[in-house]
Structures are given as structure tokens and as C-alpha cells.
Amino acid sequence: MNAEVRVARKASDYKSDITPIWCPGCGDYHVLLSLTKALAELGLPQEQTALISGIGCSSRIPAYTSCYGFHGVHGRALAVAAGLKVARPDLTVLVASGDGDGYSIGGNHFLHACRRNVDMTYIVMDNHIYGMTKGQPSPTTEPDFDTALSPGGTGLRPFNPLAIALASGANFVARAFSGNVSETTSIIVDAIRHPGFSFVEVLSPCVTFRPDQKVWKSMVRAAPVAVTSDPARAARRLMSDDGFNLGVLYRGDRRPYKPGMGGQSCDLTELEKEFEL
Amino acid sequence: MAEVSSISVAFVGSGGAGVLTTGGMLLEAACSTGWSGLLTRSVGPQIRGGEAAALVRLAARTVECHSDRFDLLLAVDWNNAHRFDAEIPLGSESLVISDPQGGPVPRFVAAAGARIVDVPMKDMTKMNPEWRPNMIALGAAAKLLRFPEDALQRLIEKRFSAKGAAVVSTNLAAARAGAAAVEKLDFPLRLPAPRAGAAKRWLITGNEATGLGAVRGGVRFAAAYPITPASEILEWLAPNLPKVGGVLLQAEDELASINMVIGGSYGGVPALTATSGPGLSLMIEAIGLATAAEVPIVVIDVMRGGPSTGIPTKSEQADLNIAVYGLHGDAPHVVVAPQSVADCLFTTQWATYLAEALQVPALVLSDQFLGQAQTAIERPADVAFVGRRLRAEHISTPYKRYALGGTDVSPMAIPGTPGGQYTADGLTHTERGTPTSTVADHRAQLDKRRDKLDRFVYGDHWATLEGEGELAVLTFGSLTGAAREAISIAGASGHAVRLIAPRLLAPTRPQEMAAALAGVKRLLVVEQTHSAQFHAYLRAHYDLPRDTRVLNRAGPLPILAGDICRALLAKEAA
């Protein structure tokens, strides 16, 4: 993050006057709350903060904040954000996504964003379902979950986003639960502060198409072990946990991608010399 | 001995045999001497072991297309050279230098009745293992074309001095041996004396000119995914953007590169990506986003043979339809096409200016012929088209990013500007950017995006208009040079012919085109597409004369001045 300016701000200062169109009870309301609380805690100026998203219920979030926002096409938020951050390293760049947008159509960008390690924070609201298109299976949906598009279930093993992020080079890997607002806030604050690409998966229940996720609040628990900076240890934990361990699970020290923007500036005629006969 | 206005030379050989280098060196030596010339390349898909041809046309004045016949063909070997039968037309007057060890002479060469002379290049390298056959061929060509003694020597020194004196002298010796091998040969063509004081010229490719035009226009951010034949634009920008405070970011795919460019430009930095047909297909959705969210971007499409993977290494103009019509919904945007290697610079610079001024995507339709052609040009004056975006600054009232009723282009707040926070959106939005699905909001924003393009004053740059007369050739892009030469040939036999070549393909300019066509009785439309896409586009948007004929042909075979001239002067429509 850049230019941490200490100004007393409230979470409500980071909310826009637009009323969210999420279903009553949607976990994303709490993600919005945690996010705005985190921005307030960091005291980030709204005009120096940009929130980028793709398409899906989660991706509606930029317009509900008072920061600069970009609501692009399905799956490409990370690419827009990388372009923005490299062109404007002075900004604090956050990216919001969901399990369909981020792990399915945007899966390739996820891998390369982790690898590229541009300094930004990626928050994925994972509800194991496509909500906006009314209940199709996503890459994190359980194999036996019955939907109109996958009668009897997909039979496919769910994607392990945290393990993939780690293997691809993400510098910060955390899991949060939308219902735990203060903990989620603190994880987002940590993620923004941590240099490089920070990945926060937020379990965010879909009350409309996954009423079974109401039990999540009794299933989640603080990870029983402390954060590690050893990727091998983190990988073993992530491959063996049940998906409900919360907290910062890996914190790396890779140097963030340093682009050359704003570097030396020569006269354009310098560039022309190579063409002279 | 006949003095001719141009001489055409082809080098062929296996991929990796160095014939493209040889062609480039012949062109550079000629241009440093004061001649002009054009070098294009034709290669198979393989990186090594395929077939390659360097096609060079040398002249006293600028040439923008190839001629109908090659006067000199030098074959380092004949490996798969039969694949060039349509691309290297020969005549009975042509001279062919062939290595007897290079495989059988292809049928098309023998069938042309050309004079074939053996030069045992491979045998010569056996005695001097450091020599390369392509340098022998280069020496032979320079000798036959009567280059001044020192022209090649200076170039070899320039090219190889970094590798040490031994490398310089080896290559010089090989070139001299090539010259000696053809010393007694009679080659009857001669170029006019080279222009004196032809310094201050540039030797440049279309792709390099495109990169420089972008930088002149203000581009400081590029995102890149490699693709033939556009990679050279990105490879030129990669080291050069940082020198002017910019940056190039390599993307994981074209979906990422186009969205990175949108992100960079949303941040206030003029941004560009370059690709070819397959990449453009992947980018189309995001170009629509940039149209809806009103984010200026520049997208270069160096067209190649399509559809699908098509012919990556060879030229065609068949991306016209996707460039003009490929976006879903009603998505007005800018499409421009450069008309020569030099014009790649101007048109890309202008495209950057238009994109920024109109807050819109601008597509530049270059092609493999222009992009990979190398030629000598006068240093282009800087036309001062620098992208200037209308920005919202000092915002006091609630900011409306997509405001109606003010200027055609609404001021854009750049992140960092206090009070300008808004969410750029691909969803239909209100003036503030808030998603909406009402009839009135949808129509208001569609009108806004149409009107800002329609009402803009594009000036004379919208088209190249030359000549008078009731006959006219209407073409676009890389065929402009061939059309101009055809008109010059027709003029020599007393036919006055106009040239109409729109640089601006979208938005269309009905009034200007009507004025350009006023008085034209017979029109010839010329385009390198299989399905006459340009003609269909013209018919959709413009009133064409009753007697309109079409010369359309799929790539990669170039449409030559002679083809256009014959079609133009034919009594009846074909």
C-alpha cells in the first residue's frame, strides 16, 4: 500500500449512497462492511484507492464504495487491476471477485497475478455457486451438489484456491468468513499492508441458492497453527485442511513486481536515432 | 544497358540460411548509397528449416509496392522454393543465380524461360568454412546492381564490427568472392544515379513506425502478448517506453493484455496493445467494455491470413469486418488504416490522438505487408497530434462521469482526483455511472457515444484523395501504394484516374465520401479479401457509381500495380 495518511475516518465514509442489490442475508453485505472498516482503519484517502471487479454478485461491490471503481467484464478484473497498478503505482489497488469470476473464467489470470506479484489485494467472495445466473455449479461447488445445469452434481473435485495461489507465487494467503466482521477486517488490513499480491478468500454464504451454507458459521474456526512464511509447510496445511480454517495462512517475502513507470525521460528524438541511415 | 526506374531482386533459401538478413543488407547498402527501396519478407511457418524469401525492390524514388516481375533471383538453395511460385513472378529477361548443390531448380523458374546461371556457393564455403552462402549471394547481387565498391564494405563493417575484425574480414571476403563469381556476367539493367545528399533519411519497418507513432502520440503504457506478425511493435516498445517514462507489461494472454491496457488508461496513462486476427478476436469483448465505459485505448491489428490461425506469416486485409462490426451491441468506435510504412507512424499517432480526444477505442488496421516491410523514408515531421484527454479537475458538485448535455465528450476523472470517485461500468449506466436498465438511460448513453464520434471534426486526414478524372480507384490500407503506382502507369498512357483511400474507416464520413466521388463515372474497388468485405462495407455506407467494379483477391498473393491497371482499363467488367 502507498501513502498511508492518518485521517480519522469511519467505515461509513467509504460507502456510497447506492443501495446494494444483494439478496437479504447475503454474506457480501458483511464483506462490504469489513472492507470499509479496513479502509477506515488504514485511513486511506478514497480518491487514492481503486476497487476493480469483474461480473457476478460479488463484483457489484465497487459501486457501493466511495472509492474509484471499475466494474469490467467477466473474469478479467485482475488484468485491469494489474494495468492500473503498474501505470499508477501511487494508488492502492484492491480487486473483488467471486468463485465463478475469479476461479473459472478468470482462472488463468489468477495464476499469473499470483506469479507476477504486483502489489495489490485480491478479495474473492466464495459461495460455491453462480448466484447471479441463478444457481449453477462453480469450480468450488461440491461434486454431488445437484443443480439444473448439473443434475446429480458435477462429479468434479472442487478447486483449492488457496493451494493454487500458494503454488503460483501469491505473497500472502488468507481465509476469512464474512460473518466474522472484525476478523475479516483485520485480515484485509493485513493484506493491504503486505507488499506484493495478497489473496484473501472470504467464505461468503449464498442464502438464496445455498441455504445449506447457514451452517458455515458453526464450522469455521481459527486456524490451529500460527502463520508461516515457509511455503512447503503452508502447502501441507492447505492441502490437508477442510476449507474452514481461518486466518492468515501464509505470508511470503517475495519482492513485489517493480515496473519502470515514470523512470528516465529522454527526448523522443533519442528514440529515432536507430533508424537514421 | 537499360536504365530502369526500379529493379526487383529476390533472395530465397531455407529458413535459417540468412536470406532475410541478406535482403535487409542489400536494402540498407542501397539506401545508404542514396537509392530507395522496399523489402518485404515471405516465410513459411517454421522457425528453422522451412523456406524464406526476401523480396527487394530498389529504385531512385520511394516505392510502396512490388513490381509485376523480379529481375534477379538469387537462390542460396531451392529447398521448398516452389512454394513461392506465385509470389516471385519471373520473365524470360530475369536472371537467376542458382547453386548447383542447392537442389533441383523449381519448375516455375524453368518455365519462365529465365536465364539461369550457376554459382557454386556451397562449394565456395567448403574451401572457406567460415563463409556463409548468403554473404556470397549478397556480394553477387551488389556487383550485378553496380553498387559502389565501398557501399557493401561499410555496411559489413557496421554490422559485424562488434563481433571482431575477423568476422568483418570473413564476411567481406565471402561478399567479394560472390562479386567475383558474377563479374563477367551481363546484367542489362541499371538504376538511375543515386541521389546525392540523401542523408537524414530513416530505414524503418512498418511495425517500428507504428511503435514510434504511438510514442509520439503520447502512449506510455503497453501490454503485450506475442503474436506473428505484430510482435515487433511490442518488442520495439519494450526497451523504448521506459526511456520516455513509460512501461510495457507482458500479459498471460490477449484477454489480459487488452484489459491491462484498459486499466492503465483508466489510470490516466495513454495505452496501447498490438496483436493480429486471433488476438483481436479474443480482445473484442473488452474493446466493447472500453467503448461502454468510455476508456480510450489503441489496439493495433497487424492483419495476417485468416480465418483462425490462417497464414500467420503472410498478409491479408480480411479483418476489416471484425474491426468495424465485431463488437456486440451498438458500439461506435474508431477504425483507421495506415497506407504505407511511413503512414504507420502518422496513422498510429493520429489514432492515439483520436482515442484520447474521443475517449474511445481506436483500432489500427495494419497488415503483415506493411508491418514487416522495411523501407527508406524521409524523417516524418512531428504532426503534433498528441493525445489530450478532457479531464475532470477541481470537482465541487457531485461528479457525473457520463454527463449529458454539456460537451460531446464528458470530462473524465482520473484516480487520485479528489471528488471524482466513480465506478466505470460496462453495464448500461446513468450519468453518474450507476448501473441502470431503463429505456431512457440506455438510449441517452447510446446517443452520447454515437454523437461524440459523429460530431467530431476529423479533417483532411480522413482519406487520401489524389488526382482528377471520371475514373477512380477506391482502396484502403496497404494497397494504397499499389493503387497509386497503377494510376501513375495509367496516367502515362493518357488516362486520368483518381485515388480515393479512406484512412478513417469508422466512423464513416458520408458527406466527405460523396464529395470525393462526385463526377466519378467508373469506380474500381481494390481489396485483399476473399469475400469483398471492403466493397460490402462501402455499399452499406456510401453511394457508389453505377459502374463500380471490384478487384478483390484473398491474400497472401499481393495485388500489384499491373493487376489494378488491367482491371481499371478493361473495357467491360470482368
Q: Can you tell me about this structure?
A:
The complex is a heterodimer of chains A (277) and B (574). With 277 residues, chain A is an alpha/beta fold. Chain A has a single domain, classed as Thiamin diphosphate (ThDP)-binding fold, Pyr/PP domains (Rossmann fold, 3-Layer(aba) Sandwich), CATH 3.40.50. Helix content of chain A is 30%, strand content 16%. Chain A is built from nine helices and eight strands. Chain A has helices spanning 28-42, 77-87, 99-105, 107-116, 161-168, 181-193, 216-219, 231-240, 268-272, and strands spanning 49-53, 68-71, 92-98, 120-126, 172-177, 197-203, 221-222, 245-251. In chain A, strands 2-1-3-4-6-5-8-7 form an eight-stranded mixed β-sheet, with helices on both faces. Chain A is globular, with a radius of gyration of 19 Å. The relative contact order of chain B is 0.10. The mean pLDDT of chain B is 95. In chain B, strands 7-6-5-2-4-3-16-9 form an eight-stranded mixed β-sheet. Chain B has a seven-stranded mixed β-sheet with strand order 11-10-12-13-15-14-21, with helices on both faces. The two termini of chain B are 38 Å apart. Chain B folds into three domains: 2-190, Pyruvate-ferredoxin oxidoreductase, PFOR, domain III (Pyruvate-ferredoxin Oxidoreductase, domain 3, 3-Layer(aba) Sandwich), CATH 3.40.920; 203-378, Thiamin diphosphate (ThDP)-binding fold, Pyr/PP domains (Rossmann fold, 3-Layer(aba) Sandwich); 459-569, Rossmann fold (3-Layer(aba) Sandwich). In chain B, a hairpin with a 7-residue loop joins strand 3 (36-43) and strand 4 (51-59). Chain B is an alpha/beta fold. Chain B has 18 helices and 23 strands. The chains are: A alpha/beta (277), B alpha/beta (574). Strand 2 (68-71) of chain A pairs parallel with strand 17 of chain B.
